[in-house]
Amino acid sequence: MTSQHDQPGRIEASGIPPPLGGNEQDQLAAIAQSEFHNRRRRDSLIRYDLFAEPAWDMLLDLYIEQHRGQPVAVDRLCAAAGAASTTALRWLALLIEKELVIRSSSVKEDGIVRVALSERGIGEMERYLRDFLHRDRLGGDIAAALSAR
Which stretches of sequence are listed as region Disordered (predicted)? Predict the structure, then answer.
């Protein structure tokens, strides 16, 4: 049996990402979950290995888990990336080199290497996710204005 932490971008039982609500951090995490879910859905419907973006999948997963307060085991992150382990590890090394991801210090406790978004990584992801949030709010305002005519 898997836990919610084993399922990046987890969705509700209905198959629909959770609705936006709560504070801004909750809304940004919901957008990241939705994006991750949509990528998996697209990959399952169009099966030609055309859409591989392991680094992006890792960043989305790490953002979702950061919101939950959980560092991510490297092996699970590689699986979430949907790429071969060697490919995923190369992308992870690049994310660490670009200072978007950091290794967790918990490896000393149980021998498992974990990673998390760095402050810079969180900032970059939130900047991207806020763009969705602001576009959604603007779109809602436009729709309300048009329906008032």
Answer: 1-24
Answer whether 113's CB lies under 8 Å from 97's CB.
Answer: no
Distance CA(79)–CA(84), nearest Å, equals: 8
Q: Token pair for residue 108?
A: 């000393």
> Which domain covers residue 52, as residue numbers?
21-147
Nearest to 65 by CA among 77, 53, 79, 82: 77
Q: Give domain status of residue 71, yes or no.
A: yes
The Cα 82–Cα 2 span in angstroms is: 17
CA dihedral 9, 11, 16, 19 (to 10 degrees): -80
Angle between helix 24-45 and 119-147 (nearest 10): 90
Q: What is the CATH number of the domain that holds 124?
A: 1.10.10.10
Considering the domain boundaries, does residue 12 fall inside one? no
* Residue 64 CB partners (closer than 8 Å, separation 6+): 8, 9, 10, 29, 32, 33, 36
Mean pLDDT split into 10-residue runs, the chain, 149 residues: 42 41 82 83 73 87 92 92 91 96 75 92 93 70 52
Q: Token pair for residue 43? A: 């990959």
Using alpha carbons, list the distances in angstroms from residue 87 to 53, 92, 103.
11, 9, 18
